[in-house]
Write a structure and sequence with these properties.
The complex is a heterotrimer of chains A (165), B (741) and C (418). Helix content of chain A is 42%, strand content 13%. By secondary structure, chain A is α+β, with helices and mostly antiparallel strands. In chain A, strand 1 (2-6) and strand 2 form a beta hairpin. Helices cover 29% and strands 20% of the residues of chain B. The structure holds FE2/S2 (inorganic) cluster (FES) (2 copies).
């Protein structure tokens, strides 16, 4: 038994320790966010966030995830209550087939957690491991920038709220 | 890279003249696929299903269900069709439930291809909706006893004098909507439209960005099991020997299915199936008969293959004398669809009937093919469309459906999900064919084109079902099915000759399509088909002619374009881009290109800036601006999204992509051996200007940008370097070779 | 007597000073329009590729040859200079004589001694004809105005005067000898390897004054924090190198040994564009320096069972993280049949293996080439160390690496040398 902490809940996983996280998420935990694209670490469709960093779940056996914090697309928000980043993707209509988008969102989430004011060049470089075949890149970049602006605005307004009587 | 100047041989022309009459007749019957019948008594696809309730149903509780035989393939059709229905039905878009292609529930609209969905299904649903609205008004009129013209429809109800409202649900008693559709409908006037023309957010995106069940890959049925296929190492290789005993004992393995050279394994859990498939691949012994041609000489090889010639344009008019004549040859290699999600399907067999969930583009043709392969009656097979990753044409989707069907039949009672690997998708999907074209044109003394001769040589661009032999698995069975004889797709849409007839006003035009039946590599429909090479060729050649005529490329195009909508698209793109002839810094260039997709779909012009690094030949894309006229724009942002995507995808094809192979196998097996565009190299920006054409028919948009984007990039590179590159892709090595030290 | 000695010493010093002065005169600027025969420029371009000029003289995402690339040495950081024809910040004002002096004597136009990080100890052996072609090529590049950072060197290494002494000790200007008993191709290869391609700069160990140790030619050295394997009989590669496999490796990728990574990757990228016979010549020469009396006793080891017993955790990690691509018998593109075929596994230290695991492999945009994801964020240092020691135990007959854990930390922090 391996205990996985996924989206804040812990699960006892009976799967064989070498099973890549991707299949445990999809097949055992029935989460759709992480997608299979290549299984080779070449496309990023399977990207999830582990301890704040984006990783390829297709090449990450559950044996090394004991006690680490795993976040998937489902952990960010739901259709009724999307996270700011997910909302930005909806507002920019940043999807065509949308198959690559969950991976894009998770990789972007890791970036914005570490750096709320990324430059355009930083975003492009950070997103480079993830492939999109529909050519939705421009809108993905726009969505990430929109989310970043939103976070900065929130940061800026936060202290003011505190000083209010 | 200066291509040798070649003219079509006399033989080509004689042969062409001989076969043309026969060929055009013999083709006239072919495939509803990319085609629509010439004499439509009813708008759009209404002729495929005459009853209104085949398209629209209203339940007693007022819920509205709309049925389309088309599929959502990432182009946003789901949203656009809901908008169309909501518009004419006068109900809120969110109140509409849309059912897409399902051989039991929806009309047969053939394939979702050729950017025809709005033209076919959009028109059908719009007219059906308008007619249903009028029927409901009629019933209400009787009910209340007022004249119909005193009533109007409003958010799901008929409203009359004194604000009297009757909900649709109360009006649909009995089979009132089971009525034959009429050729003419009372469509709302362009001014009255309130949903059509709005950039309504796509209905599928919220689910897709939050982890909803959005793709067939996400489908989880009770009791479902997982399967993987083990393919031969090459096209022709046959399974010689296999000892499965050890693999049968692996954890979770339920069944190893072998029929001839078709080999698959079913297991309880997905990773168990993967592990077993690896073991199976290691245990299988294949012979290798495949002999592919030499990649370096592929175009020479294709030219050496026998062809059937079709003269598709041959007009002559008096014109000025030719002052100079230009000739050029353009080439395009095999290219992948390369869906980001490899093909997948789920099938379930109850011992009597089979259901297949597939992301293929045609559920009815797939059903026919699978039924034939399994020797089932067609009504024993049901195909239901579920989205996959974007396909951009005929990829492995149908084949995965066949795989799932064969495996499910072997394990009745357990739904089987089969997922292709990345390597399988790369090696087995049918590619966009390698093609070449020859253009020859003369300018008179004042720089006007006086004659134009164009030859394009290509394989077929459709090897889709319904023939069972079109399915990969069916070819590998003990009793294999033979692929259908390849056929060209006839004009006006065309296949290899799609967009090969220039839209420009030229007095003398002759266009010949050399159709090559033999396919050294498996090929089929690849987004925009032959239009990708033909538009690349024609629009590159237009720039070469403009240079020879000392004219500005945009001015030169306008000079030869009479069609007003085309002119508007061209000038809009040029304006918004800020087109000018002011010189750019060293190594930078601007390029322009235009086409009307299929010469009957959306008009699209693209202007782009490119920078070429002299030392490496690397091309960086700057600002891109596109203008598009898709007729009555149903969802402008949806159109912009597709054009933007088309420009970026075409940039990847045009700068990097080419399928690699050696005599015994395909070498392009993954993203390391078939690199595509990544974030580091996407353009600076891609702006799209949608030109609405109120009251005009819907024109397909999905493929309109592929050709113009390619030619615009090539023209920008030529402008930046002074070198004309006519062979795709324009990769760094090729550009460097062209510009020299 | 004493006066005599003193005066002799005095004269000697004067002579030395005079000599130094004479060899360090500022060479006047030249701002005339230069023109060169196209075929000379073309040849110069090929030679520049064979000398990998661009890799040290181009900053990351910078303009070609405009310099600015930091080069870490044990003495501090040296920045690649701007060798575009910009007269102010580049070498645009350099005469042919100034260029030759820099290449042959390591003295720039202004008379300042250059650091041997710029391998003039190899370039000094270049023929005049080749120098001319290189000059023609560089002078016809796009002039880029780019002021590069100053070198960051600790005292006393920042004293350029010392370099004059260094040269007296180490700079051997003798041309590459011709061996009449060997083929023309071999001799061509010898010239390229020793002079232009300066293989020894990385593949020969250096002494504490940063000079290549003549007695240890091509015994293996250092490159930007990577181990540069030996190119002679001391090579630990279990798979014999043939001319063919070297050619494949230098041109793209070799199924027996894999492909170039780290600082060697740009070298192979550059060689893709040079005439095939030059790469074949290098391969022929290096194959001869690598040749072993008896290759037959060498084979790829796979001590899987003992390795698993010795390090079950590493084995477990390997099976979960690496096997998906590396246990497919070379089925996955750009993987070799056994990781044991990679020379790095058999090296004296684990740095190269660690580099690849942590930072992965990315081919240049749009080009066919190995992609390996970076595992920096997937694996922690301890896990990487386990995998590395498992690989060593399983595939190498050499002793287990002692310093794996520290090296992992160092590579992760992108530190280049201990
Ligand atoms: S599926 Fe994991 S990187 Fe492609
Ligand atoms: S949106 Fe389809 S792959 Fe990215």
């Amino acid at each position: 038994m391996i205990t996985l902490n996924v989206n804040g809940r812990s699960h006892e996983i009976a799967d064989e320790p070498n099973t890549p996280l991707l299949y445990v998420l999809r097949d055992t935990l029935e989460l759709n966010g992480a997608k299979f694209g290549c299984g080779l670490g070449q496309c990023g469709s399977c990207t999830v966030v582990v301890d704040g960093k984006s990783v390829f779940s297709c090449l990450t056996p559950i044996s090394i995830l004991q006690g680490r914090k795993i976040t998937t697309l489902e952990g960010l928000g739901s259709e009724d209550a999307p996270s700011p980043l997910q909302r930005a993707f909806i507002e920019e209509q940043a999807a065509q087939c949308g198959y690559c988008i969950p991976g894009m969102i998770m990789r972007a989430h890791a970036l914005l957690t570490a750096n709320r004011t990324p430059t355009d060049a930083q975003i492009r470089e950070h997103m480079n491991p993830n492939l999109c075949r529909c050519g939705t890149h421009m809108r993905v970049l726009a969505a990430i920038k929109r989310a970043a602006r939103g976070m900065q605005a929130a940061d800026a307004s936060a202290p003011r709220q505190e000083v209010r009587p | 890279m200066n291509a040798p100047l070649v003219t079509p041989s006399r033989r080509d022309f004689l042969a062409g003249a001989l076969v043309v009459s026969f060929s055009l007749r013999s083709l006239s019957s072919f495939a509803a696929e990319e085609q629509q019948s010439p004499k439509p008594p009813l708008p759009g696809s209404l002729k495929n299903a005459l009853m209104l309730d085949a398209w629209i149903r209203v339940d007693a509780d007022g819920t509205v269900t709309v049925f389309t035989g088309k599929c959502e393939i990432g182009q946003g059709i789901r949203t656009a069709l809901i908008q169309v229905a909501a518009e004419e039905l006068e109900v809120e878009a969110r109140a509409i439930h849309l059912v897409t292609a399902d051989t039991v529930r929806t009309a047969n609209e053939g394939f979702t291809s050729g950017s025809n969905s709005m033209k076919d299904s959009g028109a059908a649903i719009r007219n059906a909706a308008a007619q249903v609205r009028e029927i409901l008004i009629g019933i209400a009129a009787e009910r209340i006893g007022v004249a119909a013209d005193q009533l109007h429809a409003q958010s799901g109800a008929i409203v009359g004098p004194g604000n009297r409202r009757i909900g649709y649900g109360e009006l649909v008693a009995g089979e009132v909507l089971h009525a034959a559709a009429q050729p003419a409908s009372r469509l709302k006037t362009p001014e009255a439209l309130r949903v059509i023309g709005q950039s309504m957010p796509r209905v599928d995106i919220p689910g897709k960005v939050t982890g909803g069940v959005s793709y067939v890959q996400d489908l989880r049925l009770p009791n479902m099991v997982h399967a993987r296929i083990v393919r031969p190492p090459s096209y022709e290789a046959r399974l010689q020997s296999l000892d499965p005993s050890a693999i049968e004992k692996l954890p979770g393995v339920l069944k190893i299915v072998r029929d001839g050279s078709f080999l698959g394994v079913i297991a309880e859990r997905e990773f168990q199936a993967i592990t077993a498939a690896h073991a199976l691949a290691a245990a299988a012994k294949w012979d290798s008969a495949t002999k592919l041609p030499d990649e370096k000489n592929i175009f020479g090889f294709i030219e050496s293959l026998p062809g059937q010639d079709y003269i598709i344009a041959d007009k002559h008019a008096p014109s000025g004398a030719a002052a100079q004549t230009l000739e050029a040859v353009y080439r395009r290699p095999y290219q992948l669809h390369g869906s980001i999600g490899p093909s997948c399907a789920v099938a379930s067999f109850d011992g009597d009937a089979l259901t297949v969930w597939s992301h293929a583009q045609g559920m009815f043709p797939l059903r026919k093919a699978i039924a034939e392969m399994l020797h089932f009656a067609e009504d024993k097979v049901r195909c239901i469309h579920m989205e996959g990753a974007g396909c951009y044409g005929h990829n492995g989707a149908d084949d995965a459906g066949a795989d799932a069907a064969l495996l499910a039949r072997a394990l009745p009672g357990r739904p089987v999900r089969v997922q292709w690997t990345r390597e399988q998708e790369h090696q087995w999907e049918p590619y966009g064919p390698a093609m070449l074209s020859r253009a020859r044109a003369s300018l008179d003394a004042s720089g006007n084109i006086v004659d134009w001769q164009y030859d394009v040589r290509s394989n077929t661009h459709s090897t889709r079902p319904p023939g069972a032999g079109q399915l990969l698995a069916a070819r590998h069975l003990e009793q294999p099915f033979k692929p259908d004889a390849p056929k060209p797709i006839p004009q006006p849409e065309g296949g290899g000759d799609r967009n090969s007839i220039p839209l420009y006003a030229v007095p003398n035009v002759r266009v010949v399509h050399h159709f090559v039946p033999d396919m050294p590599l498996r090929v089929s429909a690849h987004r925009s088909l032959g239009a990708y090479l033909n538009v690349f060729s024609i629009e590159s050649f237009m720039d070469e002619l403009a240079t020879a005529a000392n004219a500005d490329p945009v001015e030169f195009r306008l000079r030869h374009m009479q069609e007003s909508r085309a002119r508007k698209v061209i000038s809009t793109a040029a304006e918004r881009f800020g087109w000018s002839s002011t010189p750019l810094p060293r190594g930078r260039g601007r390029g322009f290109a235009f086409a009307q997709y299929k010469n009957l779909g959306a008009y699209c012009a693209v202007a782009i800036e490119a920078e070429v690094e002299h030392e490496s030949g690397r091309v960086r894309l700057g600002r891109a601006v596109a203008a598009v006229d898709s007729g009555q724009a149903v969802n402008p942002d949806g159109i912009a999204n597709q054009i933007q995507g088309g420009v970026v995808q075409s940039a990847s094809w045009t700068l990097y992509e080419s399928v690699r192979f050696e005599p015994t196998r395909i070498l392009s097996q993954d993203w390391s051996t078939y690199p595509i565009l990544r974030f580091g190299n996407v353009p600076e920006s891609v702006d799209v200007h949608v030109i609405d054409a109120p009251g005009q028919p819907f024109l397909g948009t999905g493929e309109a940008a592929q050709g113009p984007a390619a030619a615009a990039i090539a023209n920008a590179v030529a402008h930046a370097t002074g070198m004309r590159i006519r062979d795709l892709p324009l990769n760094a090595a090729r550009v460097k070779a062209a510009i020299g030290v | 007597m004493l006066r005599l000695v003193l005066s002799i010493i005095f004269i000697a010093i004067l002579a030395a000073a005079a000599l130094f002065y004479a060899t360090h005169l500022t060479i006047p600027e030249e701002r005339t329009q230069r023109s060169f025969a196209p075929d000379i420029v073309k040849r110069g371009g090929e030679l520049a590729a064979l000398g990998y000029c661009a890799s040290c003289h181009t900053a990351e995402n910078g303009k070609p040859f405009a310099g600015g690339r930091p080069l870490a040495t044990p003495f501090g950081t040296i920045y690649g200079t701007n060798i575009t024809p910009d007269p102010e910040t580049g070498i645009g004002a350099w005469t042919r004589a100034a260029f030759n002096r820099a290449m042959r004597d390591g003295v720039d136009r202004a008379g300042r001694d250059l650091y041997p990080a710029f391998p003039y100890d190899h370039f000094t052996k270049l023929t005049d004809e080749d120098l001319g072609a290189l000059y023609a090529f560089l002078m016809t590049r796009e002039a880029v105005r780019a002021q590069n950072p100053r070198n960051e060197l600790a005292f006393p290494y920042n004293l350029r005067l010392l370099l004059a002494g260094w040269k007296l000790l180490y700079l051997d200007k003798a041309p590459v000898p011709i061996d009449p008993t060997k083929s023309a191709e071999w001799n061509r290869g010898a010239y390229l390897v020793e002079a232009l391609s300066h293989c020894g700069a990385c593949h020969t160990p250096r002494d504490r004054f940063g000079a290549e140790i003549a007695s240890k030619r091509l015994d293996g050295g250092e490159a930007e924090g990577w181990w540069a394997p030996p190119l002679n009989r001391t090579s630990p590669s279990p798979v014999p190198w043939s001319e063919e496999s070297l050619f494949n490796y230098l041109r793209s990728w070799d199924s027996g040994h894999g492909g170039a990574v780290g600082p060697m990757a740009p070298v192979v990228a550059a060689l893709a564009a040079v005439p095939e016979q030059d790469v074949r010549a290098i391969a022929a020469y290096i194959a001869s320096t690598l040749a072993k009396p008896s290759e037959s006793e060498k084979r790829v080891e796979d001590n899987q069972t003992p390795a698993i017993q010795a390090n079950s955790q590493g084995a477990q990690l390997y099976a979960g993280v690496c096997a998906a691509c590396h246990e497919t018998g070379g089925y996955v593109p750009f993987t070799v049949a056994s990781l044991g075929q990679h020379t790095s596994i058999h090296g004296p230290d684990p740095r190269n293996v660690i580099h690849v695991i942590i930072h992965g492999i990315q081919p240049p945009e749009g080009t066919v080439g190995a992609i390996m994801p970076a595992f920096a964020d997937t694996l922690n240092d301890a896990q990487i160390a386990e995998i590395v020691s498992y690989l060593r135990a399983r595939f190498s007959s050499g002793p287990q690496w002692s310093n794996i854990a520290d090296e992992v930390g160092r590579v992760r922090r992108r530190e280049t040398s201990p």
